[in-house]
Structure formats: C-alpha cells, structure tokens
Amino acid sequence: MRVAYLGPAGTFSEDALEVSRFAPGSFTPVICKTIPAVVEAVAGGEADRALVPVENSIEGSVRPTLDALIEHAEAVRIAGEFDHEIRSALIAPSGVDFEWIEAVISHPQPLAQCALFLRTELPRAELRVASSTSAAVKQVAKAGEPWAALAPARAARLYDCEVLREGIEDEPGNVTRFLWLAPRGADDPDGVSGTGRGGLWKTTLAFAELGADHPGALVEALLEFSDRQINLVRIESRPMRRELGRYRFFIDIEGREESEDVSAAIAGLRSKAEWVRVLGSYPAN
Questions:
Q1: Residue among 72, 75, 32, 70 at smallest CA distance from 51
Q2: Which CATH superfamily is domain 197-283 in?
Q3: Which of 92, 144, 162, 235 is deepest in the core (most CB within 10 A)?
Q4: What is the pLDDT of residues 70-116, one digit of tens each?
Q5: Are 17 and 23 in contact, with CB atoms under 8 Å apart?
C-alpha cells in the first residue's frame, strides 16, 4: 500500500501515521511537500491512502486540508479519523544556546500553537514559516546561524540537532485530528471496520450557495438535521474565494450516510443549497 503524508521525515504527520490504527504493518511512503499535494496524490492515483491533519484543539482547522478536500471531492473520500497528541519541541543545531536564538522557523500551525511561549520566552526572535516542521529543522541544521525550529522531538535526532525545550505548546492536551483518505470507489480501507467509538459514525459534508438568501437561510438548512434528531458536532465556514460575502460550509454530523434519517437530511439539504458534497462517512473516534 502506498501512503501519502506531509514530509520530509520527522513531521507530526509521520508521527501520527506511525501510531495510527489505520496504517498497515508495512507500506510504501509517498512523502509530499504540502498538504494539498498529499490529497492530490490520492486523487491522481499516486497513493492508495493518505493521512492529513484537519483540526487542532488550540488553533482550529487546517485550512489547506479543507480546501483540498473540496477541490478533489469527486476523487477522494474521508474514510477514518484519528486523534494524535501534539508535543512541540524547540530544536536547534548542536552548540546553539537558547539565549542566542535569532529566528524560529516552523509550519504555521506549530507557530500558532506555541505563540505564548514564543512571545514570552523568545520575544526578539523572528518567526519564519516553512512548508513543514521537519523542513524547518532541515533548514536550521544547514543554516549555520543561531536559528531554531518547532517540530517533534524526534526530528532533532534525524537532522543532527538538539532539543532545547519540549512541551512548549500553549495548552496541555494539545491534540490534532487527522483524516484517513481513500480514493472514491475503493474498498473499505484496511483497518477501518464497520464500527467506531461505541458503534458511532460521522459524516462530513460541505455545501454552499443557499438558494433562499434571507435571514435564517442557514438555520433552515441545518433544521434538516435537527428535525431528524441528527447531532451536528462541528460547523465551519470558508470563503468561496470569488467575492466577499460568499461562503461554503463544512459540517460534521453523527450518523452514517446510508442510514435512512441521514440520507433524508442530506436530500433535504440539497433542496436548499446549490451544491452539497459528501466528503466521507466513517467510524467515529
């Protein structure tokens, strides 16, 4: 099995993949430079499965994942979810003291998740963005400058660096929710059985362009679920990217797409929105 994820080696995605219940005992890694490229690898047939971050308990949604899922909704589906605890470490080349650090580099998510630490402990350090946490460690390892990176602690060993501080995220219990992706039409992914937590399922939907543009239009659309006693566990809006004031909505509901009440609710939503996409129906954590 070919499994795509955000690389290079040493990212939080790789950490999550190693302990995920979905990954097979052996697989061929398809390491991608960006999150959209991970989703594209499944859509284009370059990977059989993928693991991508979608939501963090401190910083919220991982927007590139949501946008990529919409872009490739016809080819890729969500087949499972996995919660992974995130512990960030401040990593620097050997011999660099904490007090010398002039710049801190990482993916935007860890930079935001460790904002309080950076603001109070390294107020004069310049913050720079990298494509991934491990790419940041590689960059500081080669720079020959008093720079540091935010990344998993094990990335320090991979790139001959040292951990200066660990567990520096703003809140304890920092958790990222990952999604297991599969091609549309593929068999039930390995490791994903017919039941999730307590037999529960989730279905993730996206919709936009509510036909009745008036006060309460969104409420009326969501009533398709509440009227059927279907629990809405998450909702988020994202810009349509065409003009101000136009949004698409992402929702997670409890229930399986094939169940009578959920399928009826989705049909009702289709009558109120210009488009509705079922991004996946999968066992809940």
A1: 32
A2: ACT domain (3.30.70.260)
A3: 92
A4: 999 999 999 999 999 989 999 999 999 999 999 999 999 999 999 99
A5: yes
- 2-85+174-183: in CATH 3.40.190.10: yes
State yes or no: pLDDT of 193 exceeds 50. Answer: no
List all residues 6 or more positions away from 76 whose beta carbon is below 8 Å from its beta carbon: 39, 42, 43, 50, 69, 181, 182, 183, 184
Domain span(s) for CATH 3.40.190.10 in the chain: 2-85+174-183, 89-166
Spatial distance between the Cα atoms of 210 and 274, rounded to a whole number of angstroms = 6
Which residues of the chain are in CATH 3.30.70.260 domains? Answer: 197-283
| Cα–Cα dist 31/132, whole Å | 12
Per-residue pLDDT band for 261 (boundaries 50, 70, 90) equals very high
Fold that domain 89-166 belongs to in CATH: D-Maltodextrin-Binding Protein; domain 2 (3.40.190)
Residues in the chain, total:
285
Global pTM value: 0.85
Structure tokens at 7: 């690389």
pLDDT of residue 20: 85
Tokens of 134: 């491990």
Give pLDDT tens digits for 125-165: 999 999 999 999 999 999 999 999 999 999 999 999 999 99
